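Lab notebook, bench 4. Still working through the backlog of constructs that have no structural model yet. Next entry is a single chain of 263 residues. Request: give me the structure tokens for it.
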Amino acid sequence: MREGRGESVMSRAFRLLDVFDDGVDELTLEQLVDRSGLSRSTAHRLAGQLVQAGALERSRRGWRLGTRMFELGQRVAREQRLRERVLAYMQDLYVTTGETVQLAVADGDEVLYVEIIAGHRRVVTPSRRGGRMPLYCTALGKVLLAFSADGGRAYLAGAPDLTRRTARTITEVSALRSSLGRVRAEQLAFDDEEAANGLRCVAAPILEPGQTTAVAALSVSMASGGPISPWEVAPAIRAVTRAIGRDSRIVAPSSRDVGLIRA
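Model written out:
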């Protein structure tokens, strides 16, 4: 996306901040320009202004995100409240499985990772806290689609871009529709190297009592061929998510908090 004449300064600033993804820590001016599509002069000017605001910091190679961005991120009420209330359950699940545990919500056509717990046996995943992945190729995404308000119908009808990420990625809408049907029936979703080679996941929805729309979802990720399989983990993750659903402090602490979680 190239710079547009009618684009606001704030929109351009966010384009510049958005280029710091996929674990990128530092970027040169040339990289800022290439990734954002902004002109060199605009990128340089905005970077300077963002440094003054604390959103960026100068580094040896160029620029990196500033601590002000971290501070602001901790103030996002919806995800922070959800994380705080689910964290103890995530820790229990990690102790049980010894594998990477992830909490996520749906945001548009993507999975937004709210929290990740990993230990010494951490598997390399394309996800990170605050990061995003597509809905269609992740176990978390398929759970959140299947247990969305319309069961994923609007997503499927919108001709989604099912880009092939591995040889196992679902790339046909009809196949994804069938997969979501199985997810709804089993309240479990699996990712068998669909998002990344060598990575398997199992996910389950966090549902309010008597409801069919997920507040969020939990997953456990592991290396293919590792000491444990997603199918072995399935009973544990289903038990944990159901326990979370029964905990009124998490899904319905008050009408105000429920609004924050669902916003």
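Notes after review: Strands lie at 56-58, 63-65, 100-107, 110-117, 132-134, 189-192, 199-207, 214-223. The first strand starts at residue 56 and ends at 58. Flag for follow-up if needed.
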